[in-house]
Automatic annotation (TrEMBL):
<keyword id="KW-0028">Amino-acid biosynthesis</keyword>
<comment type="similarity">
    <text>Belongs to the class-II pyridoxal-phosphate-dependent aminotransferase family. Histidinol-phosphate aminotransferase subfamily.</text>
</comment>
<keyword id="KW-0808">Transferase</keyword>
<keyword id="KW-0663">Pyridoxal phosphate</keyword>
<dbReference type="InterPro" id="IPR050106">
    <property type="entry name" value="HistidinolP_aminotransfase"/>
</dbReference>
<dbReference type="GO" id="GO:0004400">
    <property type="term" value="F:histidinol-phosphate transaminase activity"/>
</dbReference>
<comment type="pathway">
    <text>Amino-acid biosynthesis; L-histidine biosynthesis; L-histidine from 5-phospho-alpha-D-ribose 1-diphosphate: step 7/9.</text>
</comment>
<protein>
    <recommendedName>
        <fullName>Histidinol-phosphate aminotransferase</fullName>
        <ecNumber>2.6.1.9</ecNumber>
    </recommendedName>
</protein>
<dbReference type="InterPro" id="IPR005861">
    <property type="entry name" value="HisP_aminotrans"/>
</dbReference>
<keyword id="KW-0368">Histidine biosynthesis</keyword>
<dbReference type="Pfam" id="PF00155">
    <property type="entry name" value="Aminotran_1_2"/>
</dbReference>
<dbReference type="GO" id="GO:0030170">
    <property type="term" value="F:pyridoxal phosphate binding"/>
</dbReference>
<feature type="domain" description="Aminotransferase class I/classII large">
    <location>
        <begin position="19"/>
        <end position="343"/>
    </location>
</feature>
<dbReference type="InterPro" id="IPR015421">
    <property type="entry name" value="PyrdxlP-dep_Trfase_major"/>
</dbReference>
<comment type="subunit">
    <text>Homodimer.</text>
</comment>
<dbReference type="InterPro" id="IPR015422">
    <property type="entry name" value="PyrdxlP-dep_Trfase_small"/>
</dbReference>
<dbReference type="InterPro" id="IPR015424">
    <property type="entry name" value="PyrdxlP-dep_Trfase"/>
</dbReference>
Length: 351
């Protein structure tokens, strides 16, 4: 009954075991403060629950446009940026035209392309985990894919690919997607080029800045691109509660969000320094709210031992170029301390 391309897929899996410290999904470690939740509660009470949401998310788009210095017409919202990745894969190019991306990277680029039966071009990163310019260039020249997805910074490696290389590659591609899910922790962006009508669109999400439960993502692009994407968007994809909560948090709670992301950035630097001090541990540079690190022991063993001690990190060691690697999200100071203490114990026990 199901298409072969669907039977080949596997359903999304994530570690759901309850642990004392969860550092596996790159979420913001801080929940909204009580005073802000009270404001959210009040705003929610005013929603007409019997009515469909605003399909254009008009007010939320205005707020986001102002925050990012663009026009509301440059924005379309998704049920998470995941949905926008799917919409792009649906709408850009003909079905027989391919989708390219470096690997390892965020898995939804592959899942969406595979679901829609599009040809896939996966280009392994270099050993330095930067984009392989020559190999990517060859794919673009030889196969002319419709989309090049770039996670900027890259998940799971945490680094920003060289901008010069990306600029040279962008000249060869129909449309590049700069997926800036971790923008708030790095500040590098393609927004200017995207709104000037160059061949790039930007993806952003509220998931990494404290609102993962809402499922709100955004695409920023030239007006004509946004207009086309509105044609394939499910009409009521962002629920009224999500629109209302996001509006309250991004206006009245914006200082909280800014302070929280700043705290994560300083914790990132502290955690990095502390991890680097541990014997045998290699830490990779990161511009996001997570790190890759490697120990002298098999990653599965370290992952399991940490879990037994109450810390959940992500095992990414099965991915190309990431043998022995684990990914840890930056948590609150006390969570990071707990993780460091448990990692030290694990290394001692295994050593
Ligand atoms: C690079 C990247 N893009 C997109 C997403 C998905 O974000 P959302 O929660 O908005 O669907 C993630 C989530 O981890 C991500 O790492």
């Amino acid at each position: 009954m199901f298409a072969k391309r669907v039977r080949k897929l596997s359903a999304y899996k994530t570690e759901t075991s309850k642990t004392k410290v969860k550092l596996s999904s790159n979420e913001l470690p801080y929940d909204l403060p009580q005073w802000l939740k009270e404001k959210v509660k009040k705003a929610l009470a005013d929603i007409p629950f019997n009515r469909y949401p605003d399909p254009y998310a008009t007010e939320l788009r205005e707020i986001l446009a102002q925050l990012w210095g663009v026009k509301p017409e440059n924005l379309i919202l998704g049920n998470g940026s995941d949905e926008l990745i799917l919409n792009l894969t649906l709408a850009v190019g003909e079905p027989y035209e391919g989708i390219a991306y470096p690997i390892p990277t965020f898995p939804m680029y592959r899942v969406c392309a595979q679901t829609l039966g599009r040809p896939i071009y996966e280009i392994p990163l270099g050993e330095d985990l930067d984009i392989d310019e020559k190999a990517t260039s060859e794919v673009l020249d030889n196969y002319n894919p419709a989309l090049l997805f770039i996670s900027y910074p890259n998940n799971p490696t945490g680094n920003l690919f060289s901008r010069d290389r990306l600029e040279r590659l962008r000249k060869k591609v129909t449309l590049m997607v700069s997926d800036e899910a971790y923008y708030d922790f790095c500040g590098e962006t393609y927004i200017k080029q995207a709104t000037e009508g160059q061949n790039v669109v930007v993806l952003r999400t509220l998931s990494k800045i404290g609102l993962a439960s809402l499922r709100v993502g955004a695409l920023i692009g030239e007006e004509s691109i946004v207009k086309e994407l509105f044609k394939v968007k499910m009409p009521f994809n962002v629920t009224s509660p999500s629109q209302v909560i996001a509006k309250v948090v991004l206006t009245e709670g914006i200082d909280f969000i800014r302070e929280a992301t700043q705290k994560v950035i300083s914790e990132r630097e502290r955690l990095r320094a502390e991890l680097q001090r541990l014997e045998g541990v290699k830490v990779f540079p990161s511009k996001a709210n997570f790190f890759l690190f490697k120990t002298p022991f098999p990653a599965e063993v370290v992952h399991k031992a940490l879990l037994q001690k109450g810390v959940l990190v992500r095992n990414v060691s099965y991915l190309p170029n990431l043998q022995g690697c684990l990914r840890v999200s930056v948590g609150k100071a006390e969570e990071n301390d707990f993780f460091l203490e448990k990692l030290q114990q694990v290394l001692k026990e295994l050593g």
